[in-house]
Amino acid sequence: MGIAGSDVAKDASDIVLSDDNFASILNAVEEGRRMAENIQKFVLHLLAGNISQALFLLIGLAFKDQNGFSVFPLSPVEVLWVIMITSSFPAMGLGVEKGAPDLMERSPVDPKAGVFTWEVIIDMLAYGTLLGIICVVAFVGLIYGDGNGQLGENCNSKYTDACHYVFRARSTCFIIMTWCLLVLAWEVIDMRRSVFAMHPETDTPYTQVFKDLWSNQFLFWSVILGFFTAIPLIYIPVINRKVFLQGPISWEWGVCVAGLVVFVLGAEAWKWAKRVYFRKKDERPHNPEDDLEKNSPFAKYASFSRQNTMENQVLKMT
């Protein structure tokens, strides 16, 4: 105790309660769990975006123009925009996210596990691969479907009439990449529950999703503004073709919306599969009393567990 305890006791203790209130320990544990989870969400969002871009750009090396040079499916400035503008602000918003409703009901996490747990690593690969594949399919479909495979000449440095389809395909993939990464920030608010049902016990299931998204206004406005700031970059003269090496699009907006819908459905299907897996894992038979003792930081001091009692009885009988 910080108030009633002696100086010797304070020096020898691991924790000092400055207000002599045991509830402070509970609050500290809850805040620590919230911060640890938000760091995982932050890292997951950023690295999933990096994986998707890396996968997309590496596969894009296979596309050769008339001179035999690779055609970049995203220009360098587009990549920088996605990394610095699109992903940064939503990631910061995830850092101030509130704790999950069931945060204190979960089992303690091994402090040695760190940020990169198996769940975070697999989620990172799953979301990044999904988005990368969607962008590859969109780029290939536009180039070889609408453009008849015409990749132009020197489209990585300047605009010519031969680069018309490449520039339009870049704009489409840029919008898909931007929109999907922005929505991913909402998806990783809860790493297992659906973004449409983060509070399943609510009395207003049809409007709860809007309340959940609005509760973190920094994240909300980061996503909304990110959606709309990417659009002018496609149409403003000089900026689009000279800086971003992309061109205006028209009917391709349908491809952008379709790519976003596929990504959201894929992310929700992945989280559903995770819920099924962890639900079956939690249904394995176990002794609740043993779990309580195992998850307690004072388990080594416990002496009245059922197992110890049974062992003492066996010793007495023998």
Automatic annotation (TrEMBL):
Annotated Gene Ontology cellular component terms: endomembrane system
UniProt cross-references to Gene3D superfamilies, sorted A to Z: Calcium-transporting ATPase, transmembrane domain
Bilayer topology: Multi-pass membrane protein
Domain Cation-transporting P-type ATPase C-terminal: 72-272
Source organism superkingdom: Eukaryota
Keyword Membrane attributed: yes
Any Pfam family: Cation_ATPase_C
InterPro entries: ATPase_P-typ_cation-transptr_C, ATPase_P-typ_TM_dom_sf
A single GO BP: metal ion transport
Keywords: Membrane, Transmembrane, Transmembrane helix
Compartments in which it is found: Endomembrane system
Record field: transmembrane: 42-63, 79-96, 125-145, 165-189, 218-239, 251-270
PANTHER family cross-referenced by the UniProt entry: CALCIUM-TRANSPORTING ATPASE
Protein name stated in the entry: Cation-transporting P-type ATPase C-terminal domain-containing protein
